[in-house]
Automatic annotation (TrEMBL):
<keyword id="KW-0804">Transcription</keyword>
<protein>
    <submittedName>
        <fullName>HTH-type transcriptional activator RhaS</fullName>
    </submittedName>
</protein>
<dbReference type="GO" id="GO:0043565">
    <property type="term" value="F:sequence-specific DNA binding"/>
</dbReference>
<dbReference type="GO" id="GO:0003700">
    <property type="term" value="F:DNA-binding transcription factor activity"/>
</dbReference>
<feature type="domain" description="HTH araC/xylS-type">
    <location>
        <begin position="163"/>
        <end position="262"/>
    </location>
</feature>
<dbReference type="InterPro" id="IPR018060">
    <property type="entry name" value="HTH_AraC"/>
</dbReference>
<keyword id="KW-0238">DNA-binding</keyword>
<dbReference type="Pfam" id="PF12833">
    <property type="entry name" value="HTH_18"/>
</dbReference>
<keyword id="KW-0805">Transcription regulation</keyword>
<dbReference type="InterPro" id="IPR046532">
    <property type="entry name" value="DUF6597"/>
</dbReference>
<dbReference type="InterPro" id="IPR050204">
    <property type="entry name" value="AraC_XylS_family_regulators"/>
</dbReference>
<dbReference type="Pfam" id="PF20240">
    <property type="entry name" value="DUF6597"/>
</dbReference>
């Protein structure tokens, strides 16, 4: 199963965020592990405080999000996204493994990229009634059990393509030396055009996007841990700091130096 070394990678300025909300994760039951990466549960109480916008660089997986009044399916967001927390609330989310949501969605995953659609587009439920049932349960495990019952209604068969895609993405996560798609072609013996098509249809983004996104996840974490920007650029395979800063700004919206300064502000 694809898994981050630090599961909080991609949550920008998480040290600040965790003072605004609580986040827990749960692994799926054995029979759903080939489609579900993990469940994520968030609670917050900001009554009497200003809203908080949590910025995220999303993983290459679709999220199904259950939230009172706005349950939704969130495709991969190719750029930085932000979720505004205000008042009090709760979320039960499902992060699907890369390539696995195509079992539930009747089309190429690229059609969901940068889109949010109602949860009812893929699941035959009354969303308001389902939200009432879900959030009436106090125990997180019971909430997950209800969600798993929903997922099992359209239980897919195991698929070798999903496993291949996750092996490829695992390699990207754990080997920072992978900086080019051609390296994946050589390592896994998949023709480049075939690889591009698989990622487009089954994941929703290109393999190049996945490589760059995980390098930016790593960059954010190491910057927050105090690593020198020039050293970081070299560690991630960049020829110089300028090219790294350009890619970082394109993904995060600020330069690495601005990111560090905003964290320390």
């Amino acid at each position: 199963m694809t898994e981050e070394r630090n599961p909080n990678r991609g949550i920008l300025h998480y040290d600040t965020g965790k003072t605004k909300f609580s986040l827990t994760r749960r692994l799926p039951s054995d029979d759903l592990r080939f489609v579900v990466q993990h469940y994520w549960l968030i609670e917050w109480d900001l009554r009497g405080q200003p809203p908080y916008a949590q910025e995220v660089l999303q993983h290459p997986g679709v999220n199904v999000v259950f939230e009172r009044g706005q349950s939704r399916i969130s495709g991969i967001e190719s750029k930085k996204s932000a979720h505004v927390l205000q008042g009090e609330g709760q979320i039960v989310g499902v992060l699907f493994r890369p390539g696995a949501f195509r079992f539930y969605y009747p089309g190429p995953m690229s059609a969901l990229t940068d889109r949010v659609v109602p949860v009812t587009e893929c699941f035959a439920i009354d969303s308001r009634d389902y939200e009432r049932q879900l959030f009436a349960l106090e125990d997180p495990e019971q909430r997950i059990g209800l969600v798993e019952s929903l997922l099992r209604r359209s239980m897919p068969q195991r698929d070798d393509t999903v496993e291949l895609l996750n092996e490829i993405i695992d390699a990207v996560i754990h080997d920072r030396g992978i900086t080019k798609v051609d390296q994946l072609v050589d390592r896994f013996g998949v023709p480049k055009r075939t690889l591009q098509r698989l990622f487009h249809d089954d994941v929703g983004v290109s393999p190049k996007w996945v490589i760059q996104r995980y390098r930016m996840h790593e960059a954010g974490e190491l910057l927050e841990n105090g690593m020198d920007i020039a050293q970081l650029a070299l560690a991630l395979g960049y020829a110089d700091q300028a090219h790294f800063s350009k890619d970082f700004k394109a993904a995060v919206g600020t330069t690495p130096l601005q990111y560090v300064r905003s964290r320390n502000a």
